[in-house]
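Exercise: predict the fold of this chain.
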Amino acid sequence: MEKTAYIHDHTDGVEEPGLSGSDVTPEIIDTKWVDDFEDVRHLYDQAPTGITLGLIGSTLLAWWMMDSVPDFIIYPWLAFIALTCITHLFVIKQFRQSGKHIGIENNWVTYNAFLFSMLGLAWGIGYLFFFPYVDGSHQIFLYYAAGILAIGMLPVLSAVLSGYLIFISSVALPLVVVLAMSDANHVVFGVSCIIGSYIILVIIARNYQYSLKNSYALASSVSRKAREIYEDNEITRFDNLKLKKEAENFRRESMRIVNEKEQALKTLQSINEGVITTDSIGKINYINPVAEIYLGWDKREVLGKRIDSVFRTVEEKTRKKLVMPVEKCLNNTGAVNSNGKSILVRRDGVEYAIEYTLTPITDRQSNAIGTVLVFRDVTEKRELEHNLNWQASHDQLTGLINRSEFDRRLQKIINADNDDANEHALCIIDLDNLKIINDSCGHVAGDELLKKIGASLKNKSRDTDTIARIGGDEFGIILYGCTLSKAGLIAEIFREQIEKTGFSWDGRSYDITASLGVIPLDSNYGELSDVLRAADAACFTAKDKGKNQVSLLEQGQKLINRDRSQIQWVEKIRDCLNRQSFELHIQEIRPLDDLNEVVICENLLRVNDENGLILPSQYMPSLERYHMMPEIDRWVVKASLELLAYGKATMDKYKVVTINLSEQSVSNEKFTDYLKNLFDEYETERDRICFDIPEACLYRHAERTGEFIRKIRNMDCKVAIDNFSSGLESFRILKPLNIDYVKFDGRISYPYSDKSLEYTILESINHISHLIGAQTVAKFISGEENLEALYEIGVDYAQGFVLSRPRPLK
């Protein structure tokens, strides 16, 4: 008989192909079958019958012997048999709970034989006690009862011959002993009958066991064959199911690939970018409708052509022809992006500014088998970049370069190693009476005058000179390759030209004059701020002489005048700090949209002395030179937090309070620690506080400014960029910094109608500010007509005397 059994999971609901779920597979378990297991199982199946037979027979025998045998013998004997039967029933229960289908041990045979031998022994020993008390007829009955029990146990125990032998020996042996000890005449005959019966029962039991084993073997063989047939059927069925499922999956995968291909084609045809695919040698095998439009070629005409013959590009500035890097893309198996400024020349000569990406197409073995070119039209974007670049370096009112570009060029001269053969000079021009024209005629007239002065200076300057508008009424000129004496002569020409410039407004004529300061650009200046302060000092000297003058500032005179003036201011401000004689003023910043209920105020620092209020423009340059600005800023921040913490009645109407910070404070690493300590000291709503950071910090301390802004944001405060006037480069720096407000520089000329250049420029800056998530504030608004134009542009807030004048806070 084989020792292997197969046990299957007969699942009625087998999963059909196309249904989700895991494959159904037969579970095959290798097990060891014991040949004698069926004998043991038969023993335990028949054991309850034998137990019942023995218990009933013992009870009837005890009842029949009750009158002849004393109670002290019959009751213990019956109790012993009952206890043996109960124990036997318990063993049967344990057998059935022990996983009898596998791993049966011979101990179960021993348990069964032992308990039945106890039953037989109880009968045999009982006869030893019963015989003395019964007569001959009862004794014969006892023999017959023992024989009936032995015959009754034959089918119960003969499956295991040894167990049956033990049982009948336990019954027969005491009977032989009892018979041998008696004095009857039929002893020999009785013993012979018992022994003969014993032998006959053994032979019958052996034949019975042989018949059972043959039956078991036949049943096992039939069962095994049936199992094998069933297993073959099951394996075949599961194989069929698997094949059906694989076929269904293959059908679905094929449909998915077809659908994806159709979807991809539809996508390529509907996107706004041009798409061209090529083979491994650069020949076109697909082009989408957008690419057809931009190339001016029909799809049927370009298939099979090399991409260079259709996709013609040149460099924007040099007009040099560019070659598509198909080979480079295929060899490096990596994407290739357009370099520089690429221009696509259409078939009919129309040009587009484009950006493209060329990516290799690979097979499953990562071998390049073609390329895909994706390009997009960036003409509008590039024009906007050109405009923003121009705006970033030019003054919008006069068309001259602005302060940022002027400072950059001036810094380049300072950083260079100048020698005597390459001298340069700086001229600062301050209009003497622009304020009179602004006050009497309005800022529109002042703007027209500035345009006229700018055009006049540009007309009189050399081609090599740099002319810039560096302030509201200030112009700067870098005179290259020019000694101080020659620069003085050129400055005199500028002065005369300005004086000759006539200006009329509303039928009235005005005299225009300017004060000019000239300094040499030599190695005596280590910093840009030193150069500008020296030039300002020369310009102030010209004003002190009576205006409409040119002042040449020599080295010694420059240092003495500058230091004397600046030290006086530093001493005065230091005294104000000690006496706490500063004042805080606030000016409202109002929303231009009536639906916006957020009103902002700006805290302004004012110094009060015996002559009245001193404006910051008079003392700030001195404080910056001697690095006193962080002290001033600390005072302003602390006073503002005290006001928010304890002056709620005054500040409740303002949702945001802005506080100006200097460039020195932003670049000071310890300043943020000071702010954190203040916030810990004063319980204020931090999200109401907004710190104004000068735009210049973005260029001079870009990394430090970014870190400063991130720390401020972590304190839950808002951030604004103040005096914004540059453009594209500033926006590139601002984009990742999460700025809340962009405040336009007061030097920006605000528009009066949508037909002006100023309107378009300001609209672009405002739009980009909104794109980076910042709201916009227009400062120094002087007229109602400006408010209407700013509202149309979409500026969020306005600040100026026409809306609210600064007022003091206590």
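Check your answer against the key: The chain is about 55% helix and 15% strand.
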